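Next comes a single protein record:
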Amino acid sequence: MMKAAVIHTPGGPENLLLEQRPIPTPANGEVLIRIHAFGLNRAEMYTRQGHSPGVLFPRILGIEAVGTIVSAPSGEFDPGTPVATVMGGMGRTFDGGYAEYTVVPARQVKVVPSSVVEKVGWKILGALPEMLQTAWGALFISLSVKGGETLLVRGGSSSVGLAAAAIARHHGMKVVSTTRSESRRDLLIASGAHDVLIDNGSIAEEARVRYPEGFDKVLELVGVTTLGDSLKTVKRGGVVCAAGIVGGKWVLEQFTPNELIPTGVYLTTYSSSVEAFMETPLDEIALLVAEGKLHIPIKSYRLDQIVEAHHEMDESTACAKMVVVLID
């Protein structure tokens, strides 16, 4: 048997119940992972609230996990191998990472060298997979960022926003991040932003005063509630990537492209995927974080604190990437 945080019906954080469940058995093409840590993501909050179509309950949530291989019936991995996994239906179509063990398809499992685990530790490693692949993928796949460019991170105090700012600055970009709260300015600066804009829902006018040429690239993490405003901050030939829904709204109503998108500005998206995760330089970034070369704040919890953690996620008070550590 194993401990798992199980949700039987959608609702508030208290609907997450710590239960004893049978350890799952992997089939051919699957692996059983003993989980050492897992990150918390807003996607899980939305599923918990009942906003993920097609999810059947009861369900063990969690779209990512790191740990060690217990068994792989088809022989893809040796027992004891450190690994990371994300997405692919975790926590939605099948039980995910909010547990001591999980079974996932072998195709979405990435080996982490033991030397990296020893240097980094499970807490840092557990915080990175989904956050990193979103930030990295949006920056380098969708936005094709380059050193010397200016980047606006809209929703900068989100975990992905903090990671994106740190990575972009490390790669030689000038980073401007937004936050709704003046009290978070120092956090954003410490995580990599050169400048901060206080976001009251409309920043385009102030951004154009301070950066009259406009930004080269914009990473839009708030979502459709601020997308139109973000598009106004970009220079001709610049790109906006819509990659988040921190604002809690999914659909852009009455979308008229030639009214929303300025002439010569490009709009794209980034959606997390197993394929993108497998290409993400997890080992390299984890070492940079452990060495203090990338500052990404991380806040850890125990499994029996999952309700408390979800309350903080609902209220957006953590100001860090949230991670549950089972075995350090």
